[in-house]
Amino acid sequence: MIHLQHVTKEFAPKRGLFDVSFTVEPGMVFGFIGPNGAGKSTAIRQLMGLIQADSGHATIGGYDCWNQSQDVKRIVGYLPGEINLPGDFTGEQVLHLMQQLHQSKPERQSELLEQFPFETKTKIRKMSKGMKQKLALVGCFMKDAPVYLLDEPTSGLDPLMQERFLSLVDKERQRGKAILMSSHHFPEMEKSCDRAALIKEGRIIIEADIHELVRSSRKQYTIEFGLEAQAEQFALQIGSQRFQNHVSFFTSNERTLNQIIRLLTEYDVRAIQTSADDLEHVFLHYYSEEEPS
């Protein structure tokens, strides 16, 4: 449904997109993960036909994102990373305008407002960031489009609204929607995405099934020894650091881990702890590998 093929859009060295390719199928939530300035919003703007690529090709639903941008916009629900709406409009006026533009059902708008409530008669310029974000979410999803492009969708939302948003995304996925979601908020991506791509300086450094990414991450192990002298000896043995009677190390290699476990049979070990696998560890692991030595 969403296809980027070798898309490049260079603004400056290491700024833009460079040979980016990925596909989002119907019924899939695809996570685009990276820090600010990594190229996430540039990719989404390219898909919306807001900027033209230097090279490569992007389509949504078979429509060329640049040459057939009107057809693309017709089938896409878009949530931009920065919400810019007329300050003197009320939320109610904005939603009424969106309803007319998208010819959406009033019932869907009402359902979404129950999930993401705010005072619709408040003018945009008087709204908090959270209120504006809820207004934008309602406006985006009331379109009931087959494709959603969501740029930092939970920015400004409180934890309850974030959980409701994730439930909405899961419901839309089950309805067969293709959803591309960019974020640097790891827990929400881990909970909601099927696949993910990590992007740095405009280049995808890895793309995989979200659970495969987590399983392949480098994990931290902390070992508590009965004696501080043993901890010091073991730390020297494996080339790691010691804090009192604790030694910590990182590895994703099963062979290395088994060798360390065999070494531990010679010591008085009180406890072994491992860090919980999560997407943030994956992100930091791959980013640290990419840093120059």
TrEMBL record:
GO molecular function, one term: ATP hydrolysis activity
Pfam families in the cross-refs: ABC_tran
Domain of life (superkingdom): Bacteria
The ABC transporter domain, residue ranges: 2-226
This protein's UniProt keywords: ATP-binding, Nucleotide-binding, Transport
Record InterPro entries: AAA+_ATPase (IPR003593), ABC_transporter-like_ATP-bd (IPR003439), ABC_transporter-like_CS (IPR017871), ABC_transporter_ATP-binding (IPR050763), P-loop_NTPase (IPR027417)
Family: Belongs to the ABC transporter superfamily.
Protein name: ABC transporter related
Organism annotation: Exiguobacterium sibiricum (strain DSM 17290 / CCUG 55495 / CIP 109462 / JCM 13490 / 255-15)
